[in-house]
From TrEMBL, chain A:
The keyword Lipoprotein is annotated on this UniProt entry: yes
Gene: RAB2A
Main subcellular location: membrane
This protein's name: RAB2A, member RAS onco family
Gene3D superfamilies from the UniProt entry: P-loop containing nucleotide triphosphate hydrolases (3.40.50.300)
Organism from which the protein derives: Sus scrofa (Pig)
Annotated membrane topology: Lipid-anchor
Family the UniProt entry places it in: Belongs to the small GTPase superfamily. Rab family.
Keywords: ER-Golgi transport, Golgi apparatus, GTP-binding, Lipoprotein, Membrane, Nucleotide-binding, Prenylation, Protein transport, Transport
Automatic annotation (TrEMBL), chain B:
Designated name of the protein: General vesicular transport factor p115
Keywords from the named record: Acetylation, Coiled coil, Cytoplasm, ER-Golgi transport, Golgi apparatus, Membrane, Phosphoprotein, Protein transport, Repeat, Transport
SMART domains, per database record: ARM
Family the UniProt entry places it in: Belongs to the VDP/USO1/EDE1 family.
GO biological process, one term: vesicle fusion with Golgi apparatus
Topological type in the membrane: Peripheral membrane protein
Major localization listed first in the record, in broad terms: cytoplasm
Organism annotation: Sus scrofa (Pig)
Subcellular location(s) per record: Cytoplasm, Cytosol; Golgi apparatus membrane
Pfam families membership: Arm_vescicular, Uso1_p115_head
Amino acid sequence: MAYAYLFKYIIIGDTGVGKSCLLLQFTDKRFQPVHDLTIGVEFGARMITIDGKQIKLQIWDTAGQESFRSITRSYYRGAAGALLVYDITRRDTFNHLTTWLEDARQHSNSNMVIMLIGNKSDLESRREVKKEEGEAFAREHGLIFMETSAKTASNVEEAFINTAKEIYEKIQEGVFDINNEANGIKIGPQHAATNATHAGSLFLRLAAQTGPLAHSLTLSSCPAET
Amino acid sequence: MNFLRGVMGGQSAGPQHTEAETIQKLCDRVASSTLLDDRRNAVRALKSLSKKYRLEVGIQAMEHLIHVLQTDRSDSEIIGYALDTLYNIISNDEEEEVEENSTRQSEDLGSQFTEIFIKQQENVTLLLSLLEEFDFHVRWPGVKLLTSLLKQLGPQVQQIILVSPMGVSRLMDLLADSREVIRNDGVLLLQALTRNNGAIQKIVAFENAFERLLDIITEEGNSDGGIVVEDCLILLQNLLKNNNSNQNFFKEGSYIQRMKPWFEVGDENSGWSAQKVTNLHLMLQLVRVLVSPNNPPGATSSCQKAMFQCGLLQQLCTILMATGVPADILTETINTVSEVIRGCQVNQDYFASVNAPSNPPRPAIVVLLMSMVNERQPFVLRCAVLYCFQCFLYKNQKGQGEIVSTLLPSTIDATGISVSAGQLLCGGLFSTDSLSNWCAAVALAHALQENATQKEQLLRVQLATSIGNPPVSLLQQCTNILSQGDKIDRRGSKIQTRVGLLMLLCTWLSNCPIAVTHFLHNSANVPFLTGQIAENLGEEEQLVQGLCALLLGISIYFNDNSLESYTKEKLKQLIEKRIGKENFIEKLGFISKHEFYSRASQKPQPNFPSPEYMIFDHEFTKLVKELEGVITKAIHKSSEEDKKEEEVKKTLEQHDSIVTHYKNMIREQDLQLEELKQQISTLKCQNEQLQTAVTQQVSQIQQHKDQYNLLKVQLGKDNQPQGSYNDGSQMNGIQPEEIGRLREEIEELKSNQELLQNQLAEKDSLIENLKSSQPSPGANEESSATDSARDSEQIADLKQELATLKSQLNSQSIEITKLQTEKQELLQKTEAFAKSVPEPEQSETVTAAKATDVEGRLSALLQETKELKNEIKALSEERTAIKEQLDASNSTIAILQNEKNKLEVDITDSKKNKTIFWCCWLIRIRKYFH
Ligand SMILES: Nc1nc2c(ncn2[C@@H]2O[C@H](COP(=O)(O)OP(=O)(O)OP(=O)(O)O)[C@@H](O)[C@H]2O)c(=O)[nH]1
Ligand SMILES: [Mg+2]
């Protein structure tokens, strides 16, 4: 599929906040109720449309567990966007945001767009972090903010798409150097259409020749009379 | 370290001693000299000694060299020497030309020194940071050293690189180095770095490795490129093999499309260098990595689709049919095509449509099968063709049907000009080459795999064995060959033929009671099987015995008891009597215990080191796994248990049939519902049309009513006709304003008439006076009196008629209102019904009830509509009647008017001469009406 731009994303945040679920909901429109601990990093992709342009999102869902931190850090540098996720029902995941943000800022390119996500908004009764707190944190650190639910799919599309919009705007403003792929942005192939040569026509050209297989015609033993 | 000391200690005195002293001196200079030049020279001297005195330099100089790396970074030359020296110590590469027996020792040396070097993790990190140095003297030996470390102790070094910040990412930059040597060695370094480490593979892929490597391959001229292309391909394989995440990324990144040009080699005669063959081999393997049968099903199928969409499969098929392709490339291409089409309908359909460039063109499948049953083709090629055929038929009912159909009587080409797949398979099945027998049998079995229809179809195949003899069925011919197998002189292992045929028969008969019946129908078959199983044969016959036991077991397990002489029960008794239950089960177990069995059960590809290993087919091992247990159970079971089970089975079947029955019913009801829905919508449409028709008619009737009312008013008020109308005027078509006008005229006429009558009365009295004064009586007056009496009679009649009409109209309008309300009700019902219809997902009873309800309502609806139509018909008839009456009354009116006119003329005539005023008035009236 031809695309105008390709953006690389990473999803980061504490273990169990729902990063893999957000990705699954975005790519497959499914929800996975059991915590399937991510080992290292998993890849997912989807095409979206912004401003009438096809944009391919390549997303790396990272493991939140501390032990994988050194691996997941390798993905910061090449990403154009990051979804930093916490769980609104677990205050500790919100408290860790500062560390995540420092880590991200340290290892990523300075233009990386960061979207702060308060996930599990469907669990209102168990809420520990107020929406206003998330908003305040985002304002303070210059992030975009949204509350989502990977379970009900509420705001999931928006989270990924709004991040892309922000990146897209930065490209329009000339902030991003789109020719440097290390920024996590790639311009689409100009002529994506491939002229698949139809095999039949090649066969015609080859018709006069005899290959080893065609040659076997004469060699093969006569089939039994049937 | 003990080892090193041992080596050191064991060395005799002599030149080594002095070298050791020299090395020591050099090390001291490196460590203590304050002059850079001095240190540099010392390191250079160490480097020159490091190959010959690897052990000594290694032991004494390593820590000094590391120190140099830490402290002398500003001088690239000394760093370069130090890295070179370390490389010589650690690497085993350079020693390959040295005597054989020292190799083992040097391998140990390399890993020992590596262990010492990486013990301090900072050393690796230091090396990584040195690689950021652009200077060729630093970067190149740095790359080589790190590669060596990775080759020695991969997992440990990988772990250190993985945890050092941006370690992997930095190494990726090597691919972008403009100096080819560094880029190429960078590829080798990444090969070692990514080996068996999924996490690193993913990071490398994330850092755009696919893009870079594909670019390099393209730049180097694809398969015509040198060893760099080979190295890149190996690295790509490292990144993709068994790494689902990376495979997904590769596919999503549209990199499959970029593989297509790799295979544009079919029709050029640029020759096949060894390097090109190697490159192409790796390229084909890379395709296979993406569509491996061991990948998750979804991943493989999406890659298969992409390969068709971008024309990669088509490109591979041209290689398949091209000339001059080396045999091993051809073989690997066949294997690759196999896996690209396996279980993917679109690709299988495409493959079936490929034609070989022969004259006349033949299907590629036929040409391939020719090679499979051709002894002169290489063994691996024949295996590949079999695999291709299997993959073509895998989960491809359509393809299976097509292959089997080429064997059926109706489709066999009598002219014999074109050979069909079926004929080739039969030919292979009965040829004197045992390998062909095996391949053809397995191929045919795959045409039957999980396909009951084709199992039955194949029973129809009859073979003409020799002229004069009656034809024999394919099934019988297989068992004939089995039983007389030993008489035929064959090339190759006899066992292969029999194993092949038995696998075919087992596949054929399993899950197909009709085939079992056919098989048992020949009275020679069961004795043959029991004979084989019962005999005490040598070890090499054990497998055949096992397969015979399996075939007999299948004949029992899938037996529908339709043959009196070979019911389940009788066969089991036979086993007990002739073989013994335990013996039978032991023989059955020989199959899965065979040494080649587990190998075949692992992968679908028939991949055998040599022809003798060609024994089991992968799909067949699945069948054995499935049946071994159930057959054992079936044999062990007593007849009572059997009966019980039979009963249970029957009730289960009954349940099944009930369920099926209900399912069918639901399906039918669904259809009915759909039909009814459509009927309702057409009815609704009709209803609307009818309603508009009714409304139109109602308004027409209303018009008529108005007209009648008008007439009534006119006639009711006109006790005597007055005024004059033109003869031709027709009441029916008169418009309301005209009526109004007429009414006014009538009014005027009426007043005039009154005036006239007054005048007449005056005149009458005048005439009376005149009469009394004149002797002749006035005849005119008399006739005029009778006339008016007749007039008033007629008017009374008319009035009467009008009254009846009026009441008729009234009743009609009541009827219409009734009709309208009925219509309204009907419409509401229809809507309500339509709303209740589109929820068929409820339970079956509800659905059924709904359906009957719907049906009832519909018939009521239909009835009502019919009634309505009738009513409308009656109405329109009545309307016509009314119209006729109207016409009649119109004409009466016209007659009346005529008479009135006459009367007037009479009166005029009688009064003409009496007064001028009278004439003037008459003229005025005439003028008015003209
Ligand atoms: N109710 C609710 N549960 C959620 C939501 N998102 C995720 N979960 C649950 O939270 C658990 C963890 O989700 P994951 O997506 O596997 O968490 P993760 O962030 O990928 O965790 P790591 O892979 O260990 O980093 C799972 O049991 C999910 O079912 C949500 O929006 N609502
Ligand atoms: Mg996860």
